[in-house]
């Protein structure tokens, strides 16, 4: 397929662009029945766009691109709208999703999301989010997310899984600082790195991926179970067993599982009343403002830096793809931040990158140091 429309915009303007697309799709669409189901925020964003200088300017980049996209969506019988990983990480993701859903409904398009991680839906449906409980229902008491827990140091942390937070957290050095200041850090992990040992109070060895049975939600939205392919090494035990024993020691109710199937059966019983899987949420989005002139950090991971397993693979780390390490910025952004091509990290300057953005490779010590130094010099 030929690329007919392209918008390279800083993240703070993505809501503006999608609002414009929705406005022009609604002008052309015959599906007016959907209008009455649109949320208050969506209607406000469309109204704001219609009253903006952008709408009244015939040379506006956003307006011209939005009208072109709207034309493509309404002229073609089979179209897809897809949100990617950077949209999911966006502070205004709920708004971006609501706008995209509305556009898809009005243009009779398919709508989907490229999940960040292999089992994002499973994590959601099992309540592994601060605002959800098992079965994916809304929690009555909302906890902190990972960013909030690491941004403001807590007295204690429990780290679950194969995590290298200096690489896996966007906070990098700040995450390590928060963990180092904690009174207790309990890590349940298959890997005991020297960095982890420097701040962990207790490390409990757990089975690695592939060494334990479990379940996931696949791309069809179906629950799929897998068996362990190998036995856990040394004194490591499957994570669910470690958690069960800890709960038993604290005399907590509801942890009488004998195998992973017991856990799956309990979760399935909680999901009996779930509706058919759909990408459409039909939920109200809240408006979160973003500063247009503020530099955005877009973290990306190299193909062999995505998790603790591939980072520890000597054969993968010996390949040329393992060491691709470049900052990418727009020429104006490089001047604004006084970035030097001879700095600690290789620098790619290109107009294909949006202004007011830095694309930073994640998973490298050099990146962690660069982000810490940049924060100290220009602010977060």
Give the helices and strands, then pairings:
Layout: H1 14-28, H2 40-50, H3 53-56, H4 61-75, E1 80-83, H5 85-88, H6 93-107, E2 110-113, H7 120-125, H8 146-151, E3 156-160, H9 165-168, H10 173-181, E4 184-189, H11 194-199, E5 202-205, E6 214-217, E7 223-226, H12 239-249, H13 260-270, E8 296-301, H14 308-311, H15 314-317, E9 327-329, H16 331-336, E10 347-349, E11 357-362, H17 365-378
Parallel strand pairs: 1-2, 3-4, 4-5, 8-11, 9-10
Antiparallel strand pairs: 6-7, 9-11
Annotation keywords:
single chain; 380 residues; alpha/beta; 3-stranded parallel β-sheet; 38% helix; globular
Written description of the protein model:
- This protein is of the alpha/beta class.
- It is built from 17 helices and eleven strands.
- A four-stranded mixed sheet has the order 8-11-9-10.
- The protein is globular, with a radius of gyration of 23 Å.
